[in-house]
Amino acid sequence: MKSVKYILLISVLLLGIVFLVTMPGTMRKNKTAETTTTSSAPQTSQQSQVSINTSVANGSSAIVVGGEPESTASSSSDGGNAEVDKNEWAFFLINQTHPLPDNYTFERKAVQGKFEMDSRCADYMINMLADAKKDGVNLNIVSAYRSVEYQQTLLDNDTKKYEEQGYSHDEALKMASQAVAIPGQSEHNAGICADILDAGNYSLTEDFEKTPEFKWLSENAAKYGFILRYPKGKESITGIEYEPWHYRFVGPYYAQKIKESGLCLEEYYEKEKGNQ
Ligand SMILES: [Zn+2]
What we know:
By secondary structure, this protein is of the alpha+beta class. It has helices spanning 2-59, 62-67, 69-76, 119-134, 148-164, 169-179, 212-220, 235-238, 251-261, 265-273, and strands at residues 108-112, 115-118, 139-143, 193-198, 226-228, 246-249. The chain has a four-stranded antiparallel β-sheet. The chain has a two-stranded antiparallel ribbon with strand order 1-2.
C-alpha cells in the first residue's frame, strides 16, 4: 500500500511539473499573439498617418505648412528632416534671358473659377486661398496660367497703347514689356504664378499694397511656397516693375529662404546655382 501511495504522490508531482512547464508556455504564446496584434494596430494607424502627413505636406495644407512656427523652422533647416520636399521642379528662372523651353509642358488644374495653374502647385494655391478666407481675407485671382498666344495679345495691346501716345514701335514695345512679359518669358505661361487682388478690385496698381489682402500675403504666402516675385527696389535686376500682386510658386522651402534673404529670385538663384 505504501508503494501505491508513493506512485500516486510521484504522479501528482509529475502532473504538477508538466502543468507548470506547459502552462506558462501557452500563456506566453497568447501574450505574444496579443502584443503582435496590439502592436500591429498602431503600426497601421501610424502608416496611414504618415501618408496623410505626406499628402498634407505635398498639398501644403494649412495646418502643417502654414501653422506653427516649428514646422516653418523645421522646413527651413537643412539638417533634421531629410524628407523636406524642396519642389526642385519649381526652382528655376523665367525672365528675359531665361525663356521657357519650347517643349515645356505641364498639366493644369483650376485654382479659382476659370483660373488654372500647373497641377503640381495648384493645391498650394487652393490651400492658401482657403486659409486666407478663414482669416477673413478674400484673395481674388485675376490672372494665373496664360497661353503664349494670349500673352502675345496682351503685349500687342499694351504696345499699341504706348504707340497711340506717340512713342515709336520699338520704344512702345520696350515700355510694354516692362509690364507685360514677352511671350515665353512670362511666369504666367508656365502656370506657376498668379496675380492676386482684393475682392472686387481688377486694377493692377501699387495701391494694392495698402490692402489687408497684401498684408496677409506678405506675412503668409511663403508658407505656401509663394514669393513676391517683383519686389520694390529690384526692378533693375528683375527687369519688371514693382508688382505687389504677382506671386510665384517656388515651394515652401525656397520661398522661406528667399523671403529671409531679402533677395529677389534672380539674385537668390544665382547665389544658389551660379549664373547659368
Ligand atoms: Zn503676374
